[in-house]
Amino acid sequence: YGLLLRQDPEMAEVLIGELERLRGGLQLIASENLASPAVLAALGSTLTNKYAEGYPGRRYYGGCEVVDRAEQLAIDRARRLFGAEHVNVQPHSGTSANLAAYAALLQPGDVVLAMALPHGGHLTHGSRVNFSGRWFDVVAYGVRRDTEMIDYDEVRELALRHRPKMIICGATSYPRTIDFAAFRGIADEAGAWLLADVAHTIGLMAGGAVPSAVPHADVVTFTTHKALRGPRGGGIMCTAELAARIDRAVFPFSQGGPLMHAVAAKAVAFGEALRPEFAEYARRVVENARVLADALAAEGMRPVSGGTDNHLALVDLRGFAPSGAVAEQRCADAGITLNRNAIPYDPEPPTVTSGIRIGTPCVTTQGMGAQEMKEVAALVAGAVRAPDAAGEIRAGVRELTAAYPAYPS
Ligand code: PLP
């Protein structure tokens, strides 16, 4: 930060403050990660200057021969990583990717079947405050009360009753494996497109730690900044048949010039994910989440659905803490960052909630393993249970993060 310190000390202080926050606390937000210095270098590059509307070899601006190579590398690496027929790496975010997927496959007013937000779905899966709920007729499926897992019989029954034009699978806070083949079968029976939104699990898919949606879905949308550990951004994979529709839905329908520095950083992240170490990372993220969920259960914090198959645990705090919001604040006071989260059939409103969501991508990037997950569970439980002991918990957090620093210098 030397240059920025000299030119703009006010902003340099902000960046240093964020680095200190990352280094000094436990980052347990399931949708976050710590991008590598190589990814950050690409993000902070001169590629931010370039206008490149269009696609490699077909641009509406001159001087794109260099950035074309960046985008082609990103596309080729993603195709290799996921075995996809076609990849678009331009969406600015997961939301932008989903907007383009809707635009490619649907007309306003069409029926969509997607997971209910309070059961783990995302805003872009039909929330009334989002384009998806405003412009489309969204029917929601949820999880069963007893198992807290997706009820495929209910999904099928809703699909055959409402005949959606598109079914969405994939979620924001669902700790279990999603059966993409079952969704494919239901979509075929109902004559619907299948969109898999794997924003959360794409990194685990890349490392082979969870099943891939690519062989089953017509369109797969994703983010690059969660378990995949790339820059903030999105992407879309699809069949060759849908390639032109998807590309047109991104540019020119819903975006202008791509963020070429972000596209280059996505290529760097895909390159990292192609290495054998990344498969080991993805495997450890899932293993750590399992150990963490079990250790939280032993502390008296009930994991929704009884455990996890991926990178996150959703914890039911009823009987343990006043609410998810209170737990979030108590953890924050102790240097632990996580988020309140609705649990299925939550009696509390979304601003309060009865649960928290805890993820392992960041702490696994920092090198923590099973033993440390047990310590993390004890720290979280201690922070939630005993707000008066926040100072003591904070000291424990400092000890752990000093042993496994974020961005070691
Ligand atoms: N889809 C799912 C399932 C998500 O969990 C998220 C983000 O959390 C998104 C889409 C949106 O991603 P973004 O925040 O990049 O718009």
TrEMBL record:
Please give the residue positions where the record annotates the modification N6-(pyridoxal phosphate)lysine. 226
Extract the InterPro entries matched here: PyrdxlP-dep_Trfase (IPR015424), PyrdxlP-dep_Trfase_major (IPR015421), PyrdxlP-dep_Trfase_small (IPR015422), Ser_HO-MeTrfase (IPR001085), Ser_HO-MeTrfase-like (IPR049943), SHMT-like_dom (IPR039429)
Site note Plays an important role in substrate specificity applies to 225
Domain of life of the organism encoding this protein: Bacteria
Q: Which SUPFAM superfamilies match?
A: PLP-dependent transferases
Q: MF terms per GO, please?
A: glycine hydroxymethyltransferase activity
Transmembrane domains' residue ranges: none
One Pfam family in the UniProt entry: SHMT
Query: Which EC numbers does the record give?
Result: 2.1.2.1
Cofactor names: pyridoxal 5'-phosphate
**Catalytic reactions on record:** (6R)-5,10-methylene-5,6,7,8-tetrahydrofolate + glycine + H2O = (6S)-5,6,7,8-tetrahydrofolate + L-serine
From the broadest rank down, the organism's phylogenetic lineage runs: Bacteria, Bacillati, Actinomycetota, Actinomycetes, Streptosporangiales
Q: In which pathway does it act?
A: One-carbon metabolism; tetrahydrofolate interconversion; Amino-acid biosynthesis; glycine biosynthesis; glycine from L-serine: step 1/1
Alphabetized UniProt keyword annotations = Amino-acid biosynthesis, Cytoplasm, One-carbon metabolism, Pyridoxal phosphate, Transferase
What is the protein name for this chain?
Answer: Serine hydroxymethyltransferase
Q: Family membership, please give it.
A: Belongs to the SHMT family.
Q: Which HAMAP family match?
A: SHMT (MF_00051)
Subcellular location, record wording: Cytoplasm
- Sites where the protein binds (6S)-5,6,7,8-tetrahydrofolate: 117, 121-123, 241
UniProt KW Amino-acid biosynthesis keyword: yes
Question: What is its biological role?
Answer: Catalyzes the reversible interconversion of serine and glycine with tetrahydrofolate (THF) serving as the one-carbon carrier. This reaction serves as the major source of one-carbon groups required for the biosynthesis of purines, thymidylate, methionine, and other important biomolecules. Also exhibits THF-independent aldolase activity toward beta-hydroxyamino acids, producing glycine and aldehydes, via a retro-aldol mechanism.
Q: Which Gene3D superfamilies match?
A: Aspartate Aminotransferase, domain 1, Type I PLP-dependent aspartate aminotransferase-like (Major domain)
Subunit comment for this entry? Answer: Homodimer.
Q: Start and end of every Serine hydroxymethyltransferase-like domain?
A: 6-379
